[in-house]
Amino acid sequence: MNILLTGGAGYIGSHTAVVLTQANHEVVLLDNFYNSHKRVLGQLQKILGKNLHCVDGDVRNTTLITKILQDCKIDAVIHFAGLKAVGESVQNPIEYYANNVQGAISLLEAMKFANVKTLLFSSSATVYGDPQYLPIDENHPTGPTNPYGKSKLHIEEMLKDLTNSDNEWKIACLRYFNPVGAHESGLIGENPAGIPNNLLPYIAQVAGGMRSDLAVFGDDYPTIDGTGIRDYIHVMDLAEGHVKALEFLEVNNGWHALNLGTGRGYSVFEVIEAFEKASARKVPYHVVSRRLGDVSECYATPQKAKVVMSWSATRSLHEMCLSAWDFQRLNSVAAP
Ligand code: NAD
Ligand code: UD1
């Protein structure tokens, strides 16, 4: 298949580009490099032994997207492009709706015009809001608590309306839990600009000596050791989930929501311990008060993905930490 990856130079997009190319698909990347670097393209070349076609542009440019869809004879689109920082979305909600929601509308208009009706959308476990029961299945009520999460849910709802209006559309909303880790080469991985918001990249930078210690956001949650529990999933497992989801859509029309997680939660202290073991480095930490908006526990049941598209995550927390550490070692630059 010819597949367009919007946001394809980003963290999850670049790993998915590797897996799709190795599965003999032709990928075209579209990215405005707002949150990624052009050097990723060189790294992808090293991994794959060939240059990927990449267009430097904005998903909100409907004319450009239409042209790519037509010129490259695109069969399916994976829509990764978007802004993803929760705190920033609370500060700048309109920027988040403008990029995420407007970006999706622009893409859908182009797809409709070019008659490309197969789409995977990068959604998030954040659409569920505060868990009402665990593990979270796809029927769990939605109720995001921040503009980022709301933008994802708005897009999911638009996509549902679209499939209701025209049954030729094939759309899967992939609700990612906590993607971490890197490609085994250490050439691509998660490389956040500035101070990392998320746990794994922060720990990696502490282990790498770029930051002095980790602030653990609360040790008074009702969990095994008092720290928050999350469903961390190896980014390569996640990338493989996209290949499976495309195969699923080949024979299934309509709108589908699918959790992509492991079904297993780990606490912050467990992740620190695993990272210390994988890196053979100490990760100094101190406990501070809870981060506003954090929940105690969040983990998926990935059962639906297993049943409908024969996909399960296979990589362990140790492998997640090892690969994140390799990427950190090979790519560390001075902390800003
Ligand atoms: P990322 O920031 O690394 O990648 C997103 C890419 O999209 C970046 O390369 C960025 O430059 C590009 N982009 C942003 N706006 C664009 C625009 N208007 N036009 C063209 N390109 C644009 O993020 P990621 O971690 O790879 O996430 C990919 C998707 O998955 C996002 O939609 C994100 O919301 C979603 N998601 C991520 C996580 C996570 O923890 N990483 C969890 C759940 C969902
Ligand atoms: C965050 C986002 C969520 C997004 C997810 C994607 C927030 C509030 N939520 O969720 O919308 O879908 O990333 O991966 O930003 N922690 C620390 N110290 C740190 C960083 C994190 O103790 O410096 C703890 C957190 O309290 C949490 C766990 O580590 O218990 C994981 O945090 P994080 O990586 O930010 O992910 P989420 O909170 O699940």
UniProtKB/TrEMBL annotation:
Keywords: Carbohydrate metabolism, Isomerase, NAD. It is an enzyme of class 5 (isomerase). Pfam families: GDP_Man_Dehyd (PF16363). Its EC number is 5.1.3.2. It comes from the Bacteria. It catalyses: UDP-alpha-D-glucose = UDP-alpha-D-galactose. Belongs to the NAD(P)-dependent epimerase/dehydratase family. Pathway: Carbohydrate metabolism; galactose metabolism. This is UDP-glucose 4-epimerase. One of its GO terms (molecular function) is UDP-glucose 4-epimerase activity. GO terms for cellular component: cytosol. It comes from Polynucleobacter yangtzensis. One of its GO terms (biological process) is galactose metabolic process. Its cofactor is NAD(+). InterPro entries: NAD(P)-bd_dom, NAD(P)-bd_dom_sf, UDP_G4E. The keyword NAD applies. Homodimer. Residues 4-321 form the NAD(P)-binding domain.
